[in-house]
Amino acid sequence: MNRSHRSLPWYRWLRWGDYFLYILIVVVSLALFSRGPLLLGPSGGGQSADITVDGVVVKTIPADQLAQTGSFELDANGYHYTVEYEAGRIRISQADCPDQVCVQTGWVNRLGQVSACVPGHLILSVNGSPGAGEGEVTEPEVDVIIR
Question: Do 84 and 111 have their domain in common?
Answer without folding.
Answer: yes
